[in-house]
Write a structure and sequence with these properties.
By secondary structure, the protein is of the alpha/beta class. The chain is about 35% helix and about 25% strand. It has a single domain, classed as Rossmann fold (3-Layer(aba) Sandwich).
């Protein structure tokens, strides 16, 4: 496996993502772009990129904050995330910059890319589908589902959508789930929603051990959601 740090820019920010790609492939490979959670591009997202590369995909753990920028506490994480939540157009443009960098890499088939994201990154990849980014599908792991205010509703969403959700997630109560499914239906999307019972927010992150804030790792939901991702990739870009 080849691992390579790639610098790219958006506006006045220098960003750095990790490319993981199998070696010696005679044909360009389908790709998976990974959008990070609120702390920034961490070992968690990089390890997911490695796991996907081990399965034969080109994978790119993108950076939305800036080279070397990583939150170290909930307060720092929130301060890094909030400006992009407040300016969803900037978030969408930054993700497109990451996608452009990834799609241009040798060995990556730019026509077969899926974007996945965790928590904050889950919201980001849903915005990629909403904004018509050049991806074949998106997968949101315990992502925020609130629609952006800078986009008018599309009548024909091209990217397939898979949302993986913990039923007890305090950040996405039932009314937000209902609004999301209605939005996807109005947009004409090919969408799926998998809901895991007795599961809270951040269920894929082994470091999530804060039941008082609704952030709790679930080995079962982590395993099931990963299998759902693999099935989605096989359907959409393999």
């Amino acid at each position: 496996m080849l691992e390579k740090l790639l610098e790219y820019t958006h506006e006045d920010s220098v960003l750095e993502g990790l490319l993981c790609i199998p070696e010696r492939s005679p044909e360009p490979l389908p790709g998976v772009l990974i959008a990070h959670a609120w702390a920034g591009r961490s070992a968690f997202e990089c390890n997911r990129a490695r796991a996907l590369a081990a399965r034969g995909y080109a994978a790119f753990a993108a950076d939305l904050y800036g080279k070397g920028v990583l939150g170290g506490s909930p307060a720092e994480n929130a301060s890094l995330m909030q400006p992009l939540l407040d300016d969803r157009g900037k978030l969408q443009a930054r993700l497109r910059a990451a996608l452009t960098c990834f799609a241009r890499q040798p060995g990556v088939d730019a026509r077969r890319i899926v974007a996945i994201g965790f928590c904050f990154g889950g919201l980001g990849v849903l915005d990629m589908a909403r904004s018509g980014a050049a991806v074949q599908g998106v997968v949101s792991f315990h992502g925020l589902l609130d629609p952006p205010h800078n986009l008018s509703a599309k009548k024909s969403m091209q990217a397939k959508v898979l949302a993986l959700h913990g039923h007890e997630d305090p950040l996405c109560p039932p009314e937000k789930i209902a609004a999301f499914t209605q939005e996807m239906t109005r947009a004409g999307a090919d969408w799926q929603l998998h809901t895991y019972g007795r599961t809270l927010h951040a269920f894929t992150n082994p470091e999530a051990r804060q039941p008082e804030t609704g952030n709790v790792y679930s080995e079962t939901a982590d395993r099931r959601s990963w299998q759902s991702l693999l099935s989605f990739l096989e359907e959409v870009i393999d």
